[in-house]
Amino acid sequence: MAYALFKDREKLSRTFVTKEEALQKADEAGLVEDRDKPVLEDDLKIEPCPPDPEPRSDEDLDWTPAKPAS
């Protein structure tokens, strides 16, 4: 199962193999408010989803809620 970052059911990021990897990349993008719990900002959620049809690289990680990955 793959995981991605979502807001209001809209997929904002590429998929990741694990939920932990998705959370780590969200943290690197500055989207984690509380690292102890961890809590994502702005009602963001990491949810399971189908994998991306084409592999994508870390260059696709400049996403934020205002600028979703294409």
What's the gist of this structure?
The protein is α+β, with helices and mostly antiparallel strands and 70 residues long. Helices cover 14% and strands 26% of the residues.
Q: What is the helix/strand order? A: EEHEEE
Q: Roughly how many Å is the radius of gyration?
A: 11 Å
Percent of residues in helices:
10-25%
Strand order across the largest sheet: 2-1-5
Q: What ranges have pLDDT less than 50 throughout 5 or more consecutive residues?
A: none
Summing up helix and strand content along with how strands pair, one would put the structural category as alpha+beta
Quaternary state of the chains? single chain
Largest sheet: 3 strands, antiparallel
Mean pLDDT: 82
Count of individual beta strands: 5
Task: Give the N-to-C terminal Cα separation.
Answer: 21 Å
Q: Given the C-alpha coordinates, what overall shape results?
A: globular
The DSSP helix count reads 1
Strand content: 25-35%
